[in-house]
Design goal:
Number of strands: 7
Strand order of the largest sheet: 5-4-3-6-7
Distance between the termini: 35 Å
Order of helices and strands: HHHHEEHHHHEEEEHEH
Structural class: alpha+beta
Strand content: 15-25%
Radius of gyration: 18 Å
Length: about 230
């Protein structure tokens, strides 16, 4: 069930005809691109996004989500129940921001430091690495008509958990925990996860693999091995 916000958020504008300025009117507020990043990498609930963004206040998050909804980049789904819950998802207009984030990643990969296995579990949580790295290494044209589900378990991190990767209709959708049955299950270390993601070894050599080896190989081939993230 979808419910639009009844409140409107005042718009701030550069008041310039330049398309760059107009894009920044929508995307340029602090935290907006980070929130879109989190929605693209499997976070659907207000509390999960808030927990993932240290320094982001509930009021600012609420304002940004309402603005993104007003602009048609996200939809808010309200589910009745005990307790009721609200989930957010990107619209096609929201997904269209992905190339902008990829361009930022490419620039940062050239001039700044990326995420490496040795900092996972210390400077970067396993949850962040396992959701974000494959989400922005995924190349839809490599997936073709592939529709498959993979569960990944990282065994050597203090915040270890499991994650489900769904590849469907040319999109990569990560989720925390196990969601339904999987075509492939990979139980591995942080190093093994990076080996899988960067195609440094066949899936079966990256950890304990269960499921169809051919599907695992097709899944692995969907990612950019350049390691820009």
């Amino acid at each position: 069930m979808t419910q639009r916000s009844e409140l409107t958020v005042p718009k701030r504008s550069y008041q310039q005809p330049c398309l760059i300025a107009q894009a920044l009117d929508v995307l340029g507020d602090r935290w907006t691109l980070i929130i879109l990043r989190d929605l693209m990498t499997g976070l659907q609930h207000f509390g999960d996004i808030l927990d993932n963004c240290e320094g982001l206040s509930p009021n600012v998050l609420s304002s940004r989500l309402k603005r993104l909804e007003q602009e048609g980049l996200i939809q808010r789904h309200y589910y009745r129940g005990l307790p009721p819950r609200v989930e957010y998802e990107l619209t096609p207009k929201g997904w269209a921001v992905r190339p902008i984030l990829l361009s930022l990643i490419q620039w940062a990969g050239t001039y700044l430091d990326g995420i490496t296995p040795d900092i996972v579990g210390d400077e970067v949580t396993a949850d962040f690495a396992v959701r974000v790295l494959p989400a922005f290494s995924f190349e839809p044209e490599r997936a073709g008509d592939l529709c498959a589900t993979m569960v990944v378990e990282i065994t050597d991190c203090s915040d270890c958990n499991t994650w489900t990767f769904l590849i469907e209709e040319g999109r990569f959708l990560p989720r925390r925990n196990v969601n339904g049955e999987a075509d492939v299950v990979l139980r591995t270390s942080t190093e093994g996860f990076f080996r899988f993601l960067h195609a440094e070894a066949p899936p079966a050599e990256c950890g304990e693999l269960q499921g169809d080896a051919e599907t695992a190989a097709r899944l692995q081939a969907c990612f950019n091995t350049g390691g820009a993230v």
